[in-house]
Amino acid sequence: MPPLNSKPCIVAWGVVAPIGRSRAEFTAALRQGRSVVRDHDGFLAAAVEGFPQQPGVDRAIQFLDACTDQLHPALDALLEIVPPERRAAAAATSKGALLLYLREPHRAVRHFPDLSPCKPLWHLARRYRCAGPTGSYSGACATGLGNILRAAEFIQDGLADMAIAGSTEATLHPFYLSSFRNLGALASDRSIPFDRCHNGFVPGEGAAFFLLASEEAAARAGLRPIARIAGFAFGADAYHSVGIDTSGESIARVGGLAMERAEWGKSQVDLLVAHATATAANDQAEAAAIRTLFGSHAHRLPVHAFKAGAGHLMGAAGSVELAAGLAAIEGGFLPATPGFVSAAPECTGLRISGESEPASVRRVLKWSFGFGGQLVAAAVEAVNNSRPQDV
């Protein structure tokens, strides 16, 4: 597969997550290995604290706005030079404004779009006059990364000069969470991915959004890119509606395609930000995929499991976890996997640490999975002339 003709750049990012509501808080929490898993309405969960719910307002859109506010001044610079028809957007949530109507059932549903996973896309396009290509990839827990890569495609294919992309999720409610409990997917107590104590995932909420641009547009706007999306791939394991193929063969194939398009060798990856839900089947599949894809290098590859400290952010997982990869690039450290002590038997040989450590992180591989066997992978590399941003 040939490399990308034009590699889209990431020039800014914003995040709202259980471990931090700004880039600075988020990065510090990753460095410290902070965990914020708590009881939430009878479920273990990771909520965004100190973020008041406004009556009648979709919390997921509140998260989105807080993220995009963090994209300035880079966003202002691009909006100044890029006409609306060359502005793209790609965004979604996995459930729409479900939480709003579950919490306030007396409110009439005035507009069907409020319940659509596409609502974040419409909100973005309207707010920033994105009249170019738009898309809303709703891929369950692959939603976040999928939308970022759709936006990258728009720039790569020459259809847009800039794009705003990401995902948001706010569905911590017993009605919603009970469905996962009924599947047997939720942790019975605090659970750590790849660790002996893994027994299911802990749900969370949050959002992350990214400002992408072509190299040419970034230069015209006077912006120094943080990183570029050097390669990416979409795929499926074609296995089951909610299960995962524990052989990991499809995961390795999609991750390998992203690396091939980036023209990376196996030893050049500095960090893998894993999907890592802490369900036994997912952890087994990922561990197998890492061994298959990286071979003898697998035991040297640092692996970060974000969900250990901040929970599984569902539709926002891929975007927030990509933000963790960018924080590692900018901050020069390998993020901790909070609480990790010893690997489960099927995950032995992986390099996972409960403590962060200083490191030069230039190339990050991030992959995400979703119900229906959806697989997405991105190879993100630091730009040579980039420098740590003020976070």
Explain what this protein looks like in three dimensions.
By secondary structure, this protein is α/β, with parallel strands linked by helices. The protein has a single domain, classed as Thiolase/Chalcone synthase (Peroxisomal Thiolase, Chain A, domain 1). The chain contains twelve helices and 14 strands. It has a ten-stranded mixed beta sheet, sandwiched between helices. A two-stranded antiparallel sheet has the order 2-3. α6 crosses α12. The radius of gyration is 19 Å and the shape is globular.
Tags for this model:
two-stranded antiparallel ribbon, alpha/beta, disordered C terminus, 391 residues, 10-stranded mixed sheet, 19% strand, Peroxisomal Thiolase, Chain A, domain 1
Count the beta strands: 14
Helix count equals 12
Report the C-alpha radius of gyration, rounded.
Answer: 19 Å
In CATH, the topology is named Peroxisomal Thiolase, Chain A, domain 1
CATH superfamily: Thiolase/Chalcone synthase
N-end to C-end Cα span: 36 Å
Order of helices and strands: EHEEHHEHHEHEHEHEHEHEHHEEEE
Please state how the strands of the largest beta sheet are arranged side by side.
5-4-6-7-1-8-14-13-9-10
CATH class term: Alpha Beta
Q: Structural class of the secondary elements? A: alpha/beta
The gross shape turns out to be globular
Report the portion of residues in β strands.
15-25%
Contiguous low-pLDDT stretches (5 residues minimum) are: 386-391
How many domains comprise the coordinates? 1
Average pLDDT across residues?
89
CATH architectural grouping? 3-Layer(aba) Sandwich
Subunit organisation of the chains: single chain
Question: Major beta sheet, specifics?
Answer: 10 strands, mixed
* Helix amount: 25-40%
